[in-house]
Specification:
Oligomer: single chain
Low-confidence stretches: none
Mean pLDDT: 89
Number of strands: 14
Largest sheet: 5 strands, antiparallel
Structural class: mainly beta
Shape: globular
Number of domains: 1
Strand content: over 45%
Radius of gyration: 15 Å
Length: 123
């Protein structure tokens, strides 16, 4: 994953977000919090089917990504997240059982500073 900034109407050269973010797994940036302080990342590793992680910025560096806490990640595939403008609602897709299709859209609510819950299937 890279950062590209626009300066004076021109795009600068891309710079990598760092080795904490760019690992050897299948990683993809899927959302950035409205305040720019939290990066939501999709990680597909050898031992997991696909989970949503988050990383917070510490000065100029991103911390090592951690799995979202709460009810979002399951033993099934989760990915394609988007965060609301107030940073308190996360929309994501999952193929968990009892869904309405192959991959459904779900909504999660931020319960406290770091725990996501109240999962609702939107279809």
């Amino acid at each position: 994953m890279f950062l590209v900034q626009k300066k004076n109407g021109e795009w600068a050269a891309p710079t990598p977000l760092g080795e904490n973010i760019n690992g050897f797994d299948h990683d993809a940036c899927i959302a950035l919090s409205p305040d720019g302080q939290t990066l939501f990342i999709y990680k597909d590793t050898r031992d997991k089917k696909g989970e949503i992680y988050y990383s917070t910025i510490n000065g100029r560096d991103w911390d090592t990504p951690k799995p979202l806490l709460g009810e979002v990640n399951t033993a099934h595939w989760e990915g394609s997240a988007s965060i609301s403008a107030d940073g308190k609602t996360l929309f994501f897709t999952s193929d968990k059982p009892a869904g309405l299709g192959g991959r459904d859209i779900y909504k999660a609510t931020l319960i406290n500073d770091s725990i996501w819950g109240n999962i609702e299937n939107l279809g």
